[in-house]
Amino acid sequence: MNILGIDTSTSLAGVALSTDGGVSTETWNSRHNHGREVMPAVMRLLNAAEIETTDLGAVAVALGPGGFSAVRVGIATGQGLVGPSGAPLIGVPTHLIQSYEHRNASAKRVVSLIPIGRNQLSYSVYANPITGTSEEIDGGICGVAEVGNNIDWAGAIACGEGILSIEAEHGIPTADASRRPENVVAIALQRMARNVDASESVAPIYSRPPTITAPRKR
After folding, report:
1. What pLDDT, on a 0 to 100 scale, did the predictor assign at position 170?
2. Among 57, 157, 174, 209, which one is most buried in terms of CB atoms within 10 A?
3. 188, 90 in Cβ contact below 8 A?
4. Assign residue 86 a region: left if phi > 0, alpha if psi is -120 to 50, beta otherwise?
């Protein structure tokens, strides 16, 4: 099956294409230009594999948390790609994508961290062994300065983009700060194999409600 993965949750963006010939990926650092950058990246992978969008058996998208517009760009792109063919669209939480990378780690628990601005981090805790259908056992938002106290770090490691914000004096064991788009595909394949109905729940996950400006009075 040809399956495409899209992750535009944060500035660490990426796409992955799984075909019978293997997995190809493209990653980049986006400066708030996800809407302009994601489709050209998708098309480069499809053209290199010599397949059309209608050849995709499924598309998987990262749901966030992440930037308000960034997350929506990835989901909207996925919806547009599966629209003509009716292929399933599979949503994957971004915290699970980051944690899945460390599914074979010796740590009992993996804590995924994503910066959300205002010196705050979104965190999600998963128990090992982590699979494509794992659910978080804890999660929330905390200040960067409070991360050492707000999370139980016994037998745990931190991973994901948010570890770059952690001060060394916290003494928190850390893993990798990267987020690989091929994990979006791997998780989606596991969910499809276990008949997890994700198409009905492809909705963005926001760390906090979007700010809406009240209309001006005339």
Report:
1. 76
2. 157
3. yes
4. left
